[in-house]
Amino acid sequence: MEEERNGVEGRGHHPLLIGERRKRSFSHGFSSSQIQALSSICDTLIPPLRLESISKENPPQALHSFFKASGSQFPVPDEVAELMKKRGLPEGVMLVSIILKMLSTRLGTLLLCGFVCLGWNWPFILKFSEISLEKREQVLLNWSGQRFLYPLRLFFAIMKIFCFFVFFSRQTDDNLENPTWEAIGYQVDNKECVKKPPMERPIRKGIIETMNENDSSLVQSLTHRGLKVIEDRRNICKIKCDVVIIGSGCGGGVAAAVLARAGHKVLVLEKGNYFEPEDYTSLEGPSMSEQYESGGIMSTIDAKVMILAGSTVGGGSAVNWSASIKTPNYILREWSADHKLPLFGSSEYLSAMDVVWKRIGVTEKCTKEGFQNQVLRQGCENLGLNVESIPRNSSEDHYCGSCAYGCRRGDKQGTQSTWLVEAVGCGAVILTGCKAEKLVIEENKDGTKRKKCSGVIATCSSENITKKLQIEAKATISAGGSLLTPPLLLSSGLENPHIGKNLHLHPVLLAWGYFPESQSGIQGKCFEGGILTSLHKVVSEESRVQALVEVCALGPASFAAIHPWISGLDMKERMVKYSRTATLFALVRDKDAGEVKLERRIKYRLHPADNENLRSGLRQALRILIAAGAAEVGTYRSDGQSIKCKGVKDEAVEEFLDGVTAGGGPCSRGEHWTLYSSAHQMGSCRIGANEEEGAVDENGETWEAKGLYVCDGSVLPTAVGVNPMITIQTTAYCISNRIAESLKKQEFLVK
Predict the structure, then answer these.
(1) Cα–Cα distance for residue pair 606/661, rounded to 1 Å
(2) pLDDT digits (tens, 9 = 90+) for 585-619
(3) 14 an active-site residue?
(4) Residues in CB range of 338: below 8 A, 6 or more apart
(5) In the chain, count of helices (H) and strands (E)?
(6) Of these residues, 498, 504, 506, 680, which one is catalytic?
(7) This model's pTM is above 0.70
(8) What pLDDT, in 10s, does the model give residues 404-437?
(9) Nearest-CA neighbor of 289 among 201, 192, 421, 171?
């Protein structure tokens, strides 16, 4: 088993983070005629262009190749279809399938494309693949701007996201590189780790990777690590422990350490896989596929908000951007007074926050900022705006721009490097590739209405493990995050109306600014340096924080997927400028909330006040980019809203900013649309003073089932308004200490 971790081609990287070799067969299920239509769409989005389209004199060969490249080249269309089938929402995939089928026929093309498909020769009506590139481009623009037949707009958005993500993330040679990367100035972080990895990591002795196990070896591995295992004839493997924790992120990792330290035998179930710093490749495609929910391509049902959530050992703390901001005092006052939750106004919480701060090694200084943070800081200083340094759970000289794909230097202190190490040191066991399917809820023997949770039933992703796992525990903790905890509780029979409601996303809108190297004193590239080191607070006239402005880490595939498309030429010119394009975002503390009751079925609507705050934040982000010296700035609105800054008058800038709004998504009826983003999810099983106010009590225990606790971001009463890692870990620390105290009392009563 250990041999499988020794890497590929002598590099020491994990095979899963290198990606699949080129496939010769596909299982997407689309017909050859559908793939032909899909190929034509990919060719329209990423067309082969004449060399005279290149604006540079004596362009390098890589640029020649990039401009000549087409999205239709084999096997890109099949890979797009494969990824779409794997990651897309079922109704979205069905929509794509229907439209591709129509486009593969002459009549269907006429219905969807109009008169541009008519020709002078028999059979007079052309299929989509037979239409000229210029006319196909016109069709796509018409679909993008479609206000009434919004399924066509949605189809366009889906195709754009998947096509660009595949094209710019795929590795096409043995060096694990993409030929476009050189042309756009992108380099994968392949520097050797500064810190020499230890011969053996302490956490390894407690991890069981189910991908390397079978039915018999799994029993041996569990028994060897001190767990009692009974093989049932009903194809069930029963495991007994004191505490079972579902999830290993900011909530689960902390809970595992606290409860294992208290002397309890802890079993952590993690549906993702375990990776060490030397395993990481910084390759955008496979890294996101393995370490994010739905491979990093997940959205609300209406495709308005793109959502990032971690799915690996360490959860979001393994792939987040290191921001370690304490819970603001005004939030604590609100939760304590308005929500009647004394915990958040107590010394217990403040002390816990200090413990968390110290345990994950938070530093408040940064010795060297990367390109994007330099832009943010310089723009704010030039405008006379306040700019703050962001505390990080890494060293002061941590200059890593690829932490979103796992920190190769092992510098960032996620739960897999801190709390889980401590947990394993105290006897905890971590089972990876293991997904909780259903909680075991039973009638309470004391005759009360409240039921009891005795554990969880789980399945392993490995095909070599055929048995289901039934974990029996004194305490069961759901720590799968705000998107997965509610579906698990509801599918297990819990009915509290707050479960799955009150979902906050900290919605984000992006702005970009292009800084030609020859015209800017700011050095570096957008993918270099610590991701988050500076922030600016947008404050209203009433001294109320409306939004935070921070920088955004976007690999080339993600950048291309969400960037507005107005023509093939414009797209390629934008991508050539990628490495010197700074992306800032405006984040708001959302007042309104969404819901998630089934996995990947996320509903969300913005409150008008949130829209206004986002607009203010986005306008401020654009002002900062202009003040920092950008040659051109713009938003991610579908029509490519932008303005060239050189020599432009203040009146023109203000007129441009007046036109900046927080618009609707692809399913809206507006003239233009945009994509929102979210990397923070909170509140979907919030703590309440009583069961009419929340899904769990102040100890994290569910009102309906004794012994069942929630210990993740879903318990937060409202949105925090800042990066929530410290708040989640602090709350988890308090809850898990209370669980430990409760278990201690139970043991005393038994004795």
Answers:
(1) 13
(2) 999 999 999 999 999 999 999 999 999 999 999 99
(3) no
(4) none
(5) 22, 23
(6) 680
(7) yes
(8) 999 999 999 999 999 999 999 999 999 999 999 9
(9) 171
